[in-house]
Amino acid sequence: MIDSVEFAKYLVWRAKELEELYHVQYELGPTKLNKIMYICEGILLAYGINIIKENAQAWDDGPIYPRVYKWISEHPDVPLAVSETPDTIKKHLENYHALPLIDRGIIAFAARSTEELTAWSQEKSSPWAWAMQKAHGAPHYPIDKYDMARYFSKFGK
């Protein structure tokens, strides 16, 4: 299993690589990073790859990983300045054949605005909505990984 903060660091690093490769700007701010992480984890779960130790939670502004949120809050400039390859995480992801799936999530969604991703993550049929319904609207309820796998499987394999 991979620590959620280490996974987030990998996403920031990989998004920068893909920006250079495809000549695009992803601009992963704190909220957007959480949404991209949720999307990438959802894609992985749809393929039966459950490797992130932490569950996303249903917060008012969509899916949030509390440890990642805290890390960003305590070090606001660090997440956006990750410049070295998190090699240990990359090797772990390679063992699960997860790298192309993560790239797929970043490429398909990271160019969208934070507002678009937040609205998309909160659609009525989303795992976030199901978690909010289970919690009767109370925030910080864990988003079920099975619900994420089922939801993200509709995006095709």
What does this 3D model show about the protein?
- The chain is mostly helical and 157 residues long.
- It has one domain.
- Helix content is 57%, strand content 5%.
- The protein has 8 helices and 3 strands; from the N terminus they run H-H-E-E-H-H-H-H-H-E-H.
- It has helices spanning 4-22, 30-46, 66-74, 87-95, 99-109, 114-121, 127-134, 145-152; strands spanning 57-59, 62-64, 141-142.
- Strands 2-1-3 form a 3-stranded antiparallel sheet.
- Strand 1 (57-59) and strand 2 form a beta hairpin.
- Helix 2 crosses helix 5.
- The longest helix has 19 residues, at 4-22.
- It starts with a helix and ends in a 5-residue tail after the last helix.
- The relative contact order is 0.21.
- The model has no long low-confidence stretch (mean pLDDT 91).
Shape descriptor reads globular
Structural class: mainly alpha
Number of domains: 1
Main β sheet profile: 3 strands, antiparallel
Please estimate the helix content: 55-70%
Low-confidence stretches: none
Strand content: 5-15%
Helix run count: 8
Tally of DSSP β-strands? 3
Secondary-structure element order, N to C? HHEEHHHHHEH
Q: What is the spatial order of strands in the main beta sheet?
A: 2-1-3
- Radius of gyration from the alpha-carbon trace, in angstroms: 14 Å
Outline:
By secondary structure, the protein is mainly alpha-helical. It has helices at residues 4-22, 30-46, 66-74, 87-95, 99-109, 114-121, 127-134, 145-152, and strands spanning 57-59, 62-64, 141-142.
